[in-house]
Structure formats: C-alpha cells, structure tokens
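thought: user wants a sequence for this fold. calling inverse folding tool.
action: design(structure=
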C-alpha cells in the first residue's frame, strides 16, 4: 500500500467507521435501485454500466480511495491508481421474477443479507455494485450499490444513484467496444471530513454529563428494552417492507396534517410495534436517529457529494404514552419526535455523540470495551427521504423505480435498525436489519407485521 498516493488522514467520524470493520462490528451500507432503460439503448447492459461507472469514478474521488492502517489509531485514505471494474462490478441474472406491487424483493434481500455480513479487503475498492438483470425485460435491472461507511453515508448512496442515472443518460450514444474495464483514478482531492468543515461543538455541561455517566455512575431504567448484551460476530438478518405508492402518499399527507414528519411518524410506529410484542415489564424503548449535516456545510459539499457527514440524536418512548389511545395511531408521539428533530437541527450539530468522537484516543479499545455490556438503544431509524430524479414523462431517458436503503446492524448499537427511502415508483421502502441472536426471530417477525399495519393505519 506504500506505493499508493496518500490522500488525507481520516477524521474522527471516519475513524469510528474504519475501526469497526477489522473488529467485525459493522460492515457496510447499501442503496439499491431498479432502472429501466429506453428502447434506444441497444448494447448489452454491461457496456452502459461500465461507462456510467467510469463517469462516476471521475466525479467522486472517494470511489477510488480506500482506508489503510485500519487497525491503528491513525488510519488515512490512499488512492488506488486505477479501478478494474471487473472486481467491484458483477452482473447476475435473476432466478426469480421481478417483484410486483408491494411484494418484497426476495432475491435482493437474500443478496443484501449476505453482503451486510461481508467486509472489504484492500487493495480492492471499498464498494461493490451488483447488477441483477431480468430475463423477461433486458432493459430492466436492479443496481445494488454496497459501500464502506467511511466512504459514504445513506445520502451518499442516494447521490451514487442520482449521478449514475445521469451517467446512463449521457451514455445513450455509446458504441460497441467503447466502454472500458480499467478506469484510471482521478487526480482530484478527497472532499474534507465532517470535523474539518463543521465545528461539531459540545458544551461543558454536556461533556461533564457524558463523562459522569461513562466513568462514575449511570442509571439504567429497569424497564428499558435493548435486546441482548453486545456481542460479535454479526450475522445480518434482513427484511424489506414495501408501502405502495398510494398508501405512501396518504401517509405523507397525514403526517403533514398532524404536524409530524415521515421520520417522526416512523419512529412512533416502530415504538408502538415493539411495545405490542415486548413483555409488559418493558416500559421504555430508546431511539437513536441519524441527521444529515450537509444543510450546514458550506462550499463543495452538496446533496450530490459522496462522503460521511451525519449527526445523531436520541429519543425515548414510554409504553403508557405510546399506547395512550390504543385504537388510534400515536400522532402525539410523532409530534414529540418531530419537535426533538427540530430542536436537534436548531443546534446545528452541537452536543451530539458524533461531536464527542474527537475525544476518543483509541477507537479499537473504545469499541472493544463495549463487548459484553448492555446496549444503550433499542432501535435506530435512518430516513434519507426521496430518490426520484426521473424527468417526468420523458421516455427517452433511463428511469428509476423502486429503491431500497439498508445497512449492517451495528453490533455496539441499537437492537433493530430501520433504514427508509422512497423511490421513483412512489413506494416507501424500509430495509430492516438486526444481528442474529439479539432477540428471538419471532419477536422481529411479529414487530414487522404490526409495523406494516401501523403504517397502513396512519395512511387512513
């Protein structure tokens, strides 16, 4: 690795993600999208995919970067001299039909379940792209983009597909034999890490409080459910929920009418679903949520950039409040959640867990020290919004349909992870993951079934 061009040291948030891979505490993030190409695209799909990947590698320097010294306190990024697309990109024909309506995509889920338990090895790229082709329609395929969390957050996965769609459109006039397999890496520098462009400040009382709880005494509510104590290795379990377009639209409308947001209502629905199936002695669940900090970052970092620029926030739900009106959706809890999110946003990244990462001396020791201890959170929600860059009614352009966002469950984090996105088909899709053994599989099956009912109820 010494001969590779050195780019820059990893920032604290990147270090956190880098340290988790060798410890097998977390592997990757994925955003998957189904594409339909116009009839004018007559070459094999592989040619268009390779050409689009060439465009993206030129646009996003992180796609040719990998972290090195991962198991030390001083990891940094180096640039691969070139990317041989035959390594990260693979095409495979579906063995099952494309899902229709709100059917889950079983084949995609099986692929992702394996991928979310599989890491990356240098000097191969720290991302993979699987193209699931369709025998019945050779212009249609699902692109599954799987990437290391230090290379990007959920919004970066969205940015990959937005720029991939544009690159496919630009490849419309591609000729046979023009697409290249070996792509030279760009010369552009990596975008800056979060802490280099945003202060991530913490107030003294906040720091003192966190230190006191960590070092002196921490009260744990006996009614709090967080699943099994922290353990390795991770064997990812994954399910997909598809809320059809008409129901999703009604759900979004009802969120607005009830002064809630989609993210806040999702959080309340998951809390309700958990309490429905947890034993009565569990009276509290804790949420950890992710917020994109791009809105505060000036200059070159935009919604289309690829890198990791997220913050965290927390929320607690109490059984008595969530079930106050058992026959109605818990809109009061959704409004409370929305207020928490807005308060977090108004602080512009001040007093977050991410802001405290700069005080960690040794991430390996910090993370290994958590194994065998109780989790702090019950569930995590990451909602990256809508991925719908389609040009309306333009049949000459490639189109994006159903989209899915999913990730490895964090071994040191929440017991249940829900990743949410809405695609070009208007369906709200939830990628739900958990670590095998963190709770009984029957519990999660029941929670998922109830969650679907709750979201349909919220759309009534």
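)
observation: tool returned 460 residues.
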């Amino acid at each position: 690795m010494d001969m590779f061009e050195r780019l820059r040291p990893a920032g604290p948030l990147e270090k956190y993600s880098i340290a988790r891979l060798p410890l097998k505490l977390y592997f990757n993030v994925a955003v998957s999208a189904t594409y339909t190409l116009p009839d004018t695209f007559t070459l094999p799909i592989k040619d268009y995919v390779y050409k689009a990947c060439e465009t993206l590698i030129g646009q996003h320097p992180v796609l040719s970067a990998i972290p090195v010294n991962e198991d030390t306190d001083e990891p940094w990024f180096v640039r691969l001299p070139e990317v041989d697309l035959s390594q990260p990109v693979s095409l495979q024909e579906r063995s099952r039909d494309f899902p229709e309506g709100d059917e889950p995509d079983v084949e995609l889920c099986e692929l992702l379940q394996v991928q979310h338990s599989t890491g990356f090895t240098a000097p191969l790229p720290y991302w993979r792209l699987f193209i699931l082709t369709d025998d019945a329609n050779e212009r249609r395929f699902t692109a599954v983009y799987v990437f290391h969390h230090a290379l990007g957050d959920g919004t970066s996965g969205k940015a990959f597909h937005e720029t991939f769609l544009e690159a496919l459109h630009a490849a419309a006039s591609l000729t046979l034999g023009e697409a290249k397999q070996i792509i030279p890496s760009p010369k552009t520098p990596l975008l800056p890490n979060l802490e280099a462009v945003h202060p991530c400040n913490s107030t003294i009382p906040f720091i003192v409080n966190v230190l006191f709880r960590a070092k002196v005494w921490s009260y744990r509510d006996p009614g709090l459910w967080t699943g099994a104590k922290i353990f390795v290795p991770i064997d990812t379990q994954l399910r997909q929920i598809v809320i059809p377009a008409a129901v999703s639209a009604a759900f979004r409308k009802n969120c607005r009418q009830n002064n809630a947001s989609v993210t806040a209502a999702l959080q309340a629905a998951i809390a309700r679903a958990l309490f429905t199936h947890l034993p009565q002695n569990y009276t509290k669940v804790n949420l950890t949520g992710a917020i994109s900090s791009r809105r505060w970052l000036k200059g070159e970092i935009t919604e289309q950039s690829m890198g990791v620029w997220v913050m965290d926030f927390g929320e607690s739900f109490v059984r008595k409040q969530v079930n106050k009106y058992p026959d109605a959706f818990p809109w009061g809890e959704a409004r409370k959640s929305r207020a928490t999110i807005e308060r977090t946003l108004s602080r512009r990244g001040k007093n977050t867990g991410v802001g405290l990462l700069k005080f960690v001396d040794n991430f390996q020791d910090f993370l290994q020290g958590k194994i065998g201890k109780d989790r702090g959170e019950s569930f995590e929600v990451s909602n990256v919004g809508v991925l719908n860059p389609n040009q309306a009614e333009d049949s000459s352009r490639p189109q994006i349909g159903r989209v899915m966002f999913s990730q490895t469950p964090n071994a040191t984090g929440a017991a249940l992870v829900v990743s949410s996105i809405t695609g070009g088909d208007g369906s709200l899709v939830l990628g739900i993951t958990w670590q095998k053994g963190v709770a009984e599989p029957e519990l999660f099956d029941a929670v998922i079934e109830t969650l679907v009912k709750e979201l349909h109820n919220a759309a009534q």
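thought: summarizing for user.
answer: Here is the designed sequence. The radius of gyration is 22 Å.
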